[in-house]
Design a protein that fits this description.
The chain is an alpha/beta fold and about 180 residues long. About 35% of the residues lie in helices and about 20% in strands. The protein has a 7-stranded mixed β-sheet, sandwiched between helices.
């Protein structure tokens, strides 16, 4: 059903869709994340290309009635109060799957921020999975990926590579998105 909705949105919204790389596991960073609509468009992209994705959500949200809906949408419950880190919980979950695409928004908020979160770098390096640079560009009406991130360098250098990939990409609320390279 969600795939049909995605096809309708693409057709009537005149969106273009980039292909996804042929890999079985990845951390997929998605930006910009300026509104819940950016999230919806991103999810529709993955429904359209037939990839099941996961998103990290605090375990407290998995109570009825929201819990079953979140699980259906790929929610992965994490316990932030456990002594084991969120990163370790995600890696353990990832290692149990044959096919896994974890969606992370590096901005960590829908508000404008220069300080993007680097947790995805640690997860990808520790789990030895690639990072796919995904995007939703509302200005040019494109859903897709810019490629696989080159993970060489320090975490700060890797983050600078990421931010440069998003220059010119516009979310639903472009005033809420900043890479520091505009």
């Amino acid at each position: 059903m969600f795939r049909i909705i995605a096809k309708i949105v693409v057709k009537f919204g005149k969106w273009k869709v980039d292909p996804f790389p042929d890999i079985k596991k990845a951390i997929v960073i998605m930006a910009p994340h300026t509104s819940m609509w950016d999230f919806v468009y991103g999810k529709l992209y993955f429904f359209l290309i037939k990839k099941k994705t996961a998103i990290i959500i605090k375990k407290e949200f998995f109570k009825w009635p929201l819990g079953p809906i979140l699980k259906k949408l790929g929610g992965v419950p994490v316990d932030r109060k456990k002594t084991i880190s969120t990163t370790r919980q995600v890696i353990d979950y990832l290692n149990k799957k044959d096919e896994f695409y974890l969606i992370i928004t590096p901005e960590g908020t829908r508000k404008k921020t220069k300080n993007w979160k680097k947790g995805f770098i640690k997860i990808a390096k520790t789990a030895n999975v690639p990072v796919v640079i995904g995007y939703v560009d509302c200005k040019d009406k494109i859903w897709g990926v810019k490629g696989i991130l080159n993970m060489t360098g320090t975490d700060d250098e890797i983050m600078e590579k990421v931010k440069k990939q998003y220059v010119g990409v516009k979310g639903v609320n472009p005033e809420n998105f900043e890479t520091g390279y505009e």
